[in-house]
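Whiteboard transcription, Tuesday session. T.W. wrote the structure tokens on the left side:
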């Protein structure tokens, strides 16, 4: 798949197949792509806790407060992305009054979900979760920013038409 094919085929999977496990080499390809993601001042200010087996099930439960995100219970892999504290002042970030770490984590998530798509896997970025529970489950002290659920989509899960802003509301060429 070239990039545009990946972008067209990636969608938030909310219909995982609970009976299909993800091959180790596919998971490794996703993690390899994560290591290539760019970040401000090349700091890579994040850590990935890759949860499989029983831990993945517990992590999935922690993404369902108020009954949301129950579809994660069927995905065999949950990647918990935590944000590392700054190791040194980022002068650019201070001058711009912008903490780029969330931006970096967003790009990382795009890499992970793009590679998952290239591997024929479904994925969903999850921003709604019980952070305290996740920290306990994954033994993390740092802020948890996102969880990415990964697994095979069910066979009958169709590619949905993308709902996006009209191009005129999204960009202009000057
Ligand atoms: C930062 C972020 C957080 C998200 N959190 C959730 C979530 O908690 N639950 C969920 O079902 N989808 C979540 N999504 C998925 C978005 O709803 C989805 O990307 C958007 O509706 C576009 O649909 P698509 O991914 O299928 O193209 C999240 C996406 C992002 C980028």
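and on the right, the sequence the group agreed on:
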């Amino acid at each position: 798949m070239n990039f545009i094919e990946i972008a067209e085929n990636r969608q938030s999977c909310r219909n995982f197949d609970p009976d299909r496990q993800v091959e180790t080499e596919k998971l490794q390809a996703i993690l390899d792509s994560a290591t290539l993601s760019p970040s401000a001042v090349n700091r890579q200010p994040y850590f990935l806790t890759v949860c499989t087996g029983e831990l993945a099930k517990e992590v999935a439960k922690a993404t369902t407060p108020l009954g949301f995100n129950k579809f994660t219970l069927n995905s065999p892999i949950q990647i918990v992305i935590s944000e590392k504290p700054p190791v040194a002042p980022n002068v650019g970030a201070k001058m711009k009054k912008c903490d780029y770490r969330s931006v970096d984590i967003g790009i990382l998530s795009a890499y992970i979900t793009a590679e998952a798509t290239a591997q024929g896997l479904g994925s969903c970025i999850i921003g709604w979760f019980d952070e305290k529970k996740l920290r306990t489950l994954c033994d993390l002290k740092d802020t948890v920013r996102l969880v990415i659920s990964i697994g095979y989509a069910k066979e009958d899960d169709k590619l949905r038409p993308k709902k996006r802003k009209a191009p005129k509301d999204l960009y202009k060429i000057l």
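Someone added at the bottom: Helices lie at 3-9, 24-35, 53-61, 91-95, 101-118, 131-138, 167-170.
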